[in-house]
């Protein structure tokens, strides 16, 4: 929490995106008993995997176990996690008429299971470990909504954007209003910080980001209750960093493809930053990871306002012991 | 050719990566009769699709129909294009012992079909349309060789790189020597320019690029016969542009995620550049495409040394008429 506010810290805090995930045996054991969406919708289960991961890794924050796509269900989209295939949306948005049928989310009751999970987790976590809530950013959600799932080239998304800018902006506005409600509900339930994941925004040119995305992402930030740090993360964002900063966020997250010192200078030292170890480094053993962590800490240069993290989520086959070694290395190497 | 050398041109020349490809009915008709590798290995067929596409689109250059992976067959790798699945390498390189068994390519005879295709195409093309030869860059080839096919996270590639840097450098050296031979053979056969495709290099941090890739890519450039323009292209390269320039090339290709003017300034105005329309723009109709082409031409600012291209290959479902409209628009809007 202090790092998010760029206050002094005894060592650099660290948490890892997707720290409660498939790479962890205890997670797979739970996951074997439930479908993925089912796991998200059972507050005790979501709380259990959230808390377990934070405890096992000895990280300095927990992030609630959930999925960025949960919010699109109350918007009228038919979401399924097909076995081994990732998310599928059976009624994707492809036309202005499809945009019209997106429901305005008036209340967040349909996602009350997330708030319950946050309340339970907050009770079970050690008091000094803050709990992070999150949501997808408008563009990344829109990309799933238009493509009907994950994508490589985002053809349907960009086609709507370019051919029907009016419908595009209407969709993005509806999503953004839903997201602000959702984040505020998470904060009310006990999330002490919240993160926007704009995971796929790196497929856009800076011009497109500025015109089609920035105003909407900004509106989410403007509507989150003041006083709660907001983290803003995306991948492939090297060409977009200044614009991402302009969109908002107290902490800007970087992927591993930028140098932390250069990226921090670009977004400005009056903002906190998060990152940025390549998740694949964790496949190369503890020694390599320690060396890479040191490089990143050196580039942060002991400046207040650095939250250590990966440059994207932990990958499924990652060895847990290397993840534990990373957390230890960050704590040890960053002692003030 | 003049644009590659930053000499004056009457209008901005344009060609399109993967211009002879699946989006074109005439290509699909040919493809229906042959397997993909078979098509590459039949010089008349490769020449036919190359020439047809250049003629149909009225572009200012042709690029020989081939695949970046052909060169790995004489290195002892067992390559297959499985139906609808992309390339598969049945004996990928995962260990130093696997690197040892990679054959040194002493002669390029095994790829003589490519040189034949170049000779035939050169005869059949209009004399004022130059023919471009190409190869994959060392990193992109190594990524296929290590992963055994396409990849999302490049775990096997980076694992070898980080854990066995000696074996990594040995593999990259063998690949690079083979590539120089291969490009020179293409030049001897009649290719007037050659392009290195480092399509997946954007998955690397700048540090990793500098240490594990740059010396090898540079060695390819250093060993290409002088006097032939060499184009150097990759995607997701925004954080790497200065290093890519350092590696070499007379023309640096950009993807759509950077602004052409900013990227050109970064690589230096003493180099020619190529790019950079988002291939997905072609799904949005001729008017949008014309507007976007104008934006790119404006950013090139009439400076000598701009070759218009997409920021990556044409996508399979692209409407041909929009591609034709793009070429016309570039010619018309860039009249000096």
Span of the ends, CA to CA of chain A: 17 Å
Identify the biggest protein-protein contact and residues per side.
A-B, 32 and 32 residues
Number of helical stretches of at least 4 residues of chain A: 13
β-strand percent of chain A reads 5-15%
Helix-strand topology string of chain A: HHHEEEHHEHHHEHEHEHEHEH
Based on CA inertia axes, which overall geometry of chain A fits?
A: globular
Identify low-pLDDT runs of chain A: none
Q: How confident is the prediction overall: mean pLDDT of chain A? A: 97
Q: Taking strands numbered 1, 2, ... along the chain, how are they ordered across the largest sheet of chain A?
A: 1-4-5-6-7-8-9
Strand runs of chain A, count? 9
Helix content of chain A: 40-55%
CATH topology of chain A: TIM Barrel
Secondary-structure class of chain A:
alpha/beta
Please identify the oligomeric state. homodimer
Q: Measured on Cα atoms, how large is the radius of gyration of chain A?
A: 19 Å
How many individual domains of chain A? 1
CATH architecture name of chain A? Alpha-Beta Barrel
Give the C-level CATH assignment of chain A.
Alpha Beta
Major pleated sheet of chain A: 7 strands, parallel
